[in-house]
Amino acid sequence: MKKRVGFPNALLFYKFSILWTTFFQELGAEIVISPKTNKIIKDLGVKFAPDEDCYSTKLYFGHTLYLKDKVDFLFIPRIGSDHEVNVGCPKFIALAEVLKSMFPDLPKIIMPFFSMAKKNHGRFKILRIIFSIGFRFTLNPFRILIAGKRAFDAQSKYDEELKFSEEELHKWENSKIFLQNLSIQEQRKTPLRIALVGHPYVINDDFSSVNIKNLLLSRGIDIITPDQMPKALIENQMEKLDYNMYFNYAREILGTTMHFIENNSIDGILQLIIFSCGPDSLIGEMSARYSSRKPGTPLLQLVLDELSSETGVLTRIEAFLDMIERKNEFRRNEENCHLHSLILDH
Amino acid sequence: MPFTFPHFGSLTHVFEVVMREVGKNDLLLPKKPNRRTAELGARYSPEFICTPFKLTLGTYIEMLEEGADELGSGSCHSWCRFGYYWPVQKLILEDLGYDFKFICLDYLRPYILLRTLQKEIGNGCSLQRAIRAVRIGWIKNRLTDLVDDLLYKYRVIETEKGLSEKMAETAFKIIVETKRLRDIKKLRKQLPEFFKKNIDVQKRDNLIKVGICGELYVVYEAALNLDIHKKLNELGIVVKNTVSLRSYLDMGLKLNPFVKSPYKTAIKAAKPYIENKCGGETLENVGDIVLCKKHGRDGMVHLYPFTCMPEIITRSFIPQISQEYNLPVLSLVLDEHTGEAGFSTRIEAFADMLIRRK
User: Fold this and answer.
1) What's the pLDDT score for residue B48?
2) Quick check: A52 and B307 CB within 8 A?
3) Structure ipTM over 0.95, yes or no
4) A246 touches chain B (CB under 8 A)
């Protein structure tokens, strides 16, 4: 019988899902992914997770508890950092051990530790992790190696497809191409372009983001998310700061916001902040301060937690969109007036 | 150019000493944070930032009003928000219209720390002088910790109320004013005698001992922890801080092969629960709670500021450890809204429970 490996569908799974699932599939394990966040999972998480954890971590607890009786292994890696200098969130390191401590009856947890910044882990460590996990499922070392290689290839291919090149971004900013296939595009006279910034596990999780992504899409708005931004562009923005932004996953978010604030090339920025998330509390404040110093692109920050209601969020987004449209119309009128006066002068 | 830094309990004296040693005599010593400081800080801070941010921001605003224009701040590069304090505080203070310069000291990277001390604070003094300053800093930090421990012991058994606090003030003054290294080293024996000589004690057997662990700023800063040490002392409990800045600063302890560092022992003891460092003092705290009985303590108090990322992790392990070792552990979250009465009630209940257990 195949061994079943469970993946809680939250937090870093949104970033590394292809890598993890491909690897275990190639090893011959049965993949069990928890369903998309729903009310049952949320209730489980809110009930059993520590009170002060951020909302996303609480959901992770819910996903894990949901999988509890359905799998033989749980895969919860402890990722300290995947960059030479910059680190991740401390909760990613401790999640597996905290879960083991709080719920002793969980199935066996596979928890490889990887930290590039503080422990200088590199390729050799990855190889060791691959083998230590692989021998639990198969005794054939070549199969393990091939599985690892295929997994990394698949992940890098996925990442490449997700990211846009700078040219494409430039074209999009000048409204020559559309990122999303919008069928209702015609409804709007002038298409709106909005950057939806936040952690990938918030934006892509329809439940915790109160369905904001689909809501914007259904209104014919073209959106871009931080994980689609070209990496060079973000690094470029980060060099302008007089300190090193050492939370690796926060870099993308702040970089995206700063890029659009500086270039003033899109209609608005919508930032999703998770309640009591550590890095978010800082980048939220930084974005707000940078935006107020260079006003031009409107910025709306929404703080989400388990009590956020769809109606409340909807009202605020509608107000935001109305504001953008009024602003655009005002600008268009002003340009027309300017043109008119030019013609009259001649 | 008056230089200032945040108030940090008894560590304020250590910072003062280091600054004076590199030749920065233009110091504006920080005031103790009070209600107004917390209100000022909370007004301008982000919504769910940890509480030390708010208090230090409040202190900076108060000190800027008094005329300081160089602000010293710590910085780090770890799994904690502490390294972002100064960038965000700088943005906030700039928007408030103050004119100032931030100097940040990265305490996890010794070379950068020494360079900053030498160039930006010491006005280009020699590297030896910076090294000597840090060395005297950690030696004096051992002494301030010693005075803290003595105070938390003598306050329980003193006959004249308030005398040991006065003595501690004098002791801190002596520590700051002693200049020669030989004299400083002598203080280690002189200070306990100084306390013994000056304070009349009423001997009591079977004193209850409690260790206090948690986030460094909360444990040290009496304004934020509502002086929990004094409250416990008044209930007849001897307390001791288990965390200290020395776990980062004390190179002498790290390099000495003959002395066992208590911080390393704690990290080792934490291994069965959590293996890897995850910012702050998580490993040390978990280890200290595990080793509680071995150190002869009757219980532990764990303090952390609201939304502190590393200490929430420690908090999650406490139920298991407490059950396995049969330990009383009180975990308290603190922020600027913590009410004095509710806080006291919980401490009193904890103290009663300890007395009944004994």
Assistant:
1) 86
2) yes
3) no
4) yes
